[in-house]
Amino acid sequence: MRRLALLCAAMAAIAAAAKEDDPLLRMLNSKASGSAASYEKAAGEVAAMAAKGKKGTPRTAVAQLLTAVASQEPDAPRAARLDAETHAKYLEATNTIRRLAVEKDNGLAWYLLALATGETNCVLKAVERKNVQALNAWGTYLLAMAEGEKPARAREIRKEAQRLFKDAAAKNDANGMYNLGMCLSKGYGGEVDMAGAFQCFRTAADTGHSEAINNVGFCFKEGIEVEKDAEAAKRWYKKSSDQRNPYGMFNYATMIDDESEAARLFKASAEGGCVEAMDAYALLLAEGRLVDKNLPQAFLLFKKAAAAGNPAAMSHLADCYERGLGVRADERKSTEWHIRARAARGDRSARIWLNENAGK
Fold first, then answer.
1. Which residues contact 144 (CB under 8 A, 6 or more apart)?
2. Fold of 267-360
3. Which of 60, 71, 65, 54 minimizes the C-alpha distance to 16?
4. How many CB atoms are closer than 10 A to CB 322?
5. Close Cβ partners of 117 (under 8 Å, ≥ 6 residues apart)
6. Chain-centroid distance, C-alpha 74
7. Cβ–Cβ contacts within 10 Å for residue 232, how many?
8. How far is residue 316's CA from residue 312's CA, in Å, rounded to a whole number?
């Protein structure tokens, strides 16, 4: 009887994490939403729960597990950075989560177990039980997998990804709604549906989803499903930027008159992984405009953005090799990157040249 009571209490604690204002849920969802500010705040609250919570209770176990997982990220929030001893101790919470997953067959517990162990079968069990975090994670994985498949197979994989995102969106999950919007906007799993995509973005944005907020700004800027409105776009971009979303910061920076603030945002956005911002900030470093001139750092940023497929950065990287800016001059590499930039912009002859000559 006592074991049953403990398990029931444990499941109640796991269910409590499904409340929108619960820091455990916010930590799980905010990173996927692209809000660095929300993720950092939630990680701090969860780390405090992990340190001060009663040992062996389900909520403490979840908090410790999430903190341990976050501590292994290259850009781990300060509050989640653990020494080796604490990290090992927190990982012991995996045993509690495994019991909840196996004995109560709980979807969230299966997903948490997947985070701790990396076991694919745990993710799939969570997907089968319609856990929204797992639905989004597996759908995202499928979209990445589709990139390397033949067209017919890729269509089937993307169709399945869209189905998973629909299931998450049907549960009023903001990440699911945003992911569904992205599929609709790109025609993944069916025809392009910009009206449906905008509705998904707008609904997710109303919950504070920073990626969706940025996309709503883009729709106003370009006049997609709404009248073009630069001021409205700027307001939406600022909302996303205030959450420290890398793309929101970049887009907002391109629309403001304060050049010093724009430079700061380009830097923060580049550090957050936005390749367009990497190129923009590298230009400032190369020119010594608004920031101290640093050619080697500019070269490295151009190289990183170019490797991610940004055509402008490819051209700038080619210039660096051509003129010896931050790197030793190399005519062959300069030529190759100029051609790569042309190929990335759709030049068919450049693609043919690369197929025949790249790497020789």
1. none
2. 1.25.40
3. 60
4. 16
5. 94
6. 14
7. 16
8. 6
Lowest mean pLDDT segment, chosen from 63-67, 172-176, 332-336, 353-357: 353-357
Query: In this structure, is the dihedral angle defined by the CA atoms of residues 47, 75, 144 and 117, taken in order, positive or negative?
Result: negative
Show the tokens assigned to 30. Answer: 């905010």
* Dist. CA 6–CA 61, nearest whole Å: 14
Nearest to 199 by CA among 218, 214, 184, 221: 184
235-248 pLDDT, tens digit per residue, is 999 999 999 999 99
Helix axes 58-71, 84-91, angle to 10 degrees: 140
Q: Where in the sequence of the chain do the CATH 1.25.40.10 domains occur?
A: 267-360
Q: What is the DSSP letter of 289?
A: S
Query: What is the residue type of 198?
Result: F
Tell me if 166 sits within 8 A of 158, measured CB to CB. Answer: no
CB of 35 within 8 A of CB of 210?
A: yes
Q: Which residue has the tokens 């700004």?
A: 217
Q: How many CB atoms lie within 10 A of CB 259?
A: 12
Q: How many CB atoms lie within 10 A of CB 75?
A: 11
